[in-house]
């Protein structure tokens, strides 16, 4: 009789599951109320519906959660805590703040390029030596992602983003008060190293809460910041350097900008990485439910240094050796990146040395580059919202080769702009044709660079971090090298032929996106790193 009164094991198990489920729902409701207070509730609009249809970053965990009630996941596809379901206005505010932080660090990379002559006179060295201040900053960009990429996967996006950004801002101070060139060079390198945090993290963060269509538009903001910063640097730096403030105030202005946009960003930008958000959700539920067995999927994985080293150190080099898509697109993007920083030396030769303009006015043609970059961004956004969206609806998944259409357009416009700029650079010709030519250059640079990166992300998917790490490392080396020889190249060859040489290099790489647009799907099937 005693055995008849004892509860059956399956009944007891069912009771435990029911109790745990009830506690989960109660805890989740409390979390959702907190989310509503933070303005993270999704609006009922078309964009939100599209994003809700996209697989969340916790996809595939639902079955696991059914098997183990102690594993914390999203409460269905409409969970308000899921970054994919955040309010679209909030998403775009986050994207803009991230873009402004990126603009500040890229602005810092070029702002000292206008102070080459004053620095050369003050420290009694050649102009080529002073040019190292720009090259070393860009070289810091190359090594930073090796650190910030893994950190963003271990600790989430926000912590490493702001740690790197704050230390970058601090490194502006020793440069501003430096009494010798060695201090400037060392601090510029480490400033670039820490400044690379936004460059390494923002792209992944945008993918945390945007679907592929809107991610293309958001990436155009990120790409515009990457290009607008270097274009604004010489203009601002030129006028500051020639004023009574002097070159040291280029660094104080950078520090002020970093503090302003960093403070706004710290308030607006939340954590966006789904595994970390689920860990926080599990932690809160443990205290609310007193069920200490609750945990997130990420808690089941141990930190594996070998896996991190493989992903960010070894695999990028393997992919550069074995992946034809990555190799050629990386070479193309590296040339584009080198052109950006090479122009910091080309424009002074053409407008200051040959046309006799002063530091500030001589940098104003960079505004034309800026206009071209903005036009390129708008075209990318337009194509993403029309053709790319239509193809995705038809195929029910993203087709990577569709990203190449703007890249092909930009690749055709870029050499035209380079030849146009070069052969209208004679002082006997009015400067306006040459200034106007900088716009298609900016447009072409933007469209090739940004869509090349988007294409790599879509091709390699879960291996995209390794592909982007390889791309960043190689392009930063090239970007650091260009300023070192650009001045001598433009002086010795002359602006027309130097620009023509760069134009021919761009023409040589122009077929790359065309070939991949036609044969990319076949090539991807042969890849070891591109999942089907």
From TrEMBL:
<feature type="transmembrane region" description="Helical">
    <location>
        <begin position="129"/>
        <end position="148"/>
    </location>
</feature>
<comment type="similarity">
    <text>Belongs to the major facilitator superfamily. CAR1 family.</text>
</comment>
<feature type="transmembrane region" description="Helical">
    <location>
        <begin position="435"/>
        <end position="456"/>
    </location>
</feature>
<feature type="region of interest" description="Disordered">
    <location>
        <begin position="1"/>
        <end position="83"/>
    </location>
</feature>
<feature type="compositionally biased region" description="Polar residues">
    <location>
        <begin position="1"/>
        <end position="21"/>
    </location>
</feature>
<feature type="transmembrane region" description="Helical">
    <location>
        <begin position="160"/>
        <end position="177"/>
    </location>
</feature>
<feature type="compositionally biased region" description="Basic and acidic residues">
    <location>
        <begin position="26"/>
        <end position="40"/>
    </location>
</feature>
<comment type="function">
    <text>MFS transporter; part of the gene cluster that mediates the biosynthesis of cercosporin, a light-activated, non-host-selective toxin. The perylenequinone chromophore of cercosporin absorbs light energy to attain an electronically-activated triplet state and produces active oxygen species such as the hydroxyl radical, superoxide, hydrogen peroxide or singlet oxygen upon reaction with oxygen molecules. These reactive oxygen species cause damage to various cellular components including lipids, proteins and nucleic acids.</text>
</comment>
<protein>
    <recommendedName>
        <fullName>Cercosporin MFS transporter CTB4</fullName>
    </recommendedName>
</protein>
<keyword id="KW-0812">Transmembrane</keyword>
<keyword id="KW-0472">Membrane</keyword>
<feature type="transmembrane region" description="Helical">
    <location>
        <begin position="320"/>
        <end position="344"/>
    </location>
</feature>
<feature type="transmembrane region" description="Helical">
    <location>
        <begin position="404"/>
        <end position="423"/>
    </location>
</feature>
<dbReference type="GO" id="GO:0022857">
    <property type="term" value="F:transmembrane transporter activity"/>
</dbReference>
<feature type="transmembrane region" description="Helical">
    <location>
        <begin position="497"/>
        <end position="519"/>
    </location>
</feature>
<dbReference type="Pfam" id="PF07690">
    <property type="entry name" value="MFS_1"/>
</dbReference>
<keyword id="KW-1133">Transmembrane helix</keyword>
<feature type="transmembrane region" description="Helical">
    <location>
        <begin position="468"/>
        <end position="485"/>
    </location>
</feature>
<feature type="transmembrane region" description="Helical">
    <location>
        <begin position="92"/>
        <end position="117"/>
    </location>
</feature>
<dbReference type="GO" id="GO:0005886">
    <property type="term" value="C:plasma membrane"/>
</dbReference>
<feature type="transmembrane region" description="Helical">
    <location>
        <begin position="189"/>
        <end position="210"/>
    </location>
</feature>
<feature type="transmembrane region" description="Helical">
    <location>
        <begin position="252"/>
        <end position="278"/>
    </location>
</feature>
<dbReference type="InterPro" id="IPR036259">
    <property type="entry name" value="MFS_trans_sf"/>
</dbReference>
<feature type="domain" description="Major facilitator superfamily (MFS) profile">
    <location>
        <begin position="94"/>
        <end position="532"/>
    </location>
</feature>
<dbReference type="InterPro" id="IPR020846">
    <property type="entry name" value="MFS_dom"/>
</dbReference>
<feature type="transmembrane region" description="Helical">
    <location>
        <begin position="364"/>
        <end position="383"/>
    </location>
</feature>
<dbReference type="InterPro" id="IPR011701">
    <property type="entry name" value="MFS"/>
</dbReference>
<feature type="transmembrane region" description="Helical">
    <location>
        <begin position="217"/>
        <end position="240"/>
    </location>
</feature>
